[in-house]
Amino acid sequence: MLKIGITGGIGAGKTIVCQMFQVLGIPVYDSDARAKWVMQHDATLKDNLTAAFGPDAYTLAGDLNRPYISGLVFNNPERLAQLNALVHPRVRIDFEQWAAAQTSAPYVLKEAALMYESQAWKQMDQIITVFAPLEVRMKRLLHRDAHRTEADIRAIISKQLDEEEKLARADHIIYNDDQQLIIPQVVALHQQFLSA
């Protein structure tokens, strides 16, 4: 089965593009949501996180202690790298199991903001990058995420792979720049993947 990765910077429009593929009947693996699920349910990962970050990594009820973990990794690149080194391999395993279960789908999509940073691209047959210029993304994000400042958004962007690099590495680009219609771009790629 064809495995298509979909990435793009924050505010580029990955979610809306994925929703369009879902309307066309294509299963989409949401890496962020699944990473949260895996951190909560994968026994091996829970043991590894507890060993790495201490007994406070999980609450007495067994739930991931997100504020505690966030506090440890926020502005600490070494601790963040340690967290990612534990979580990303378990998410890759989860994706493979999920993809194998999608037996009636012609292909699957994996949405991941950190497609390259997490090495998830290595599991994919092709990569789509959703692109929007920075000023368009900033406007969308300030409207969508009212709790975030422009400085907050720029800090998130600075931690993601450069847009030029994403574009250079992409097999396909969907332009979500408020100038071009995205539905025809999605439909054209869908037809291409069906005939692959």
From TrEMBL:
It is found in: Cytoplasm. Pfam families: CoaE (PF01121). CDD domains: DPCK. Keywords: ATP-binding, Coenzyme A biosynthesis, Cytoplasm, Kinase, Nucleotide-binding, Transferase. The keyword Cytoplasm applies. SUPFAM superfamilies: P-loop containing nucleoside triphosphate hydrolases (SSF52540). Its main location: cytoplasm. Signal peptide: none annotated. One of its GO terms (cellular component) is cytoplasm. The keyword rRNA-binding does not apply. ATP binds at G11, A12, G13, K14, T15, I16. GO terms for molecular function: ATP binding; dephospho-CoA kinase activity. GO terms for biological process: coenzyme A biosynthetic process. Its EC number is 2.7.1.24. It catalyses: 3'-dephospho-CoA + ATP = ADP + CoA + H(+). It is an enzyme of class 2 (transferase). Catalyzes the phosphorylation of the 3'-hydroxyl group of dephosphocoenzyme A to form coenzyme A. Belongs to the CoaE family. This is Dephospho-CoA kinase. The gene is coaE.
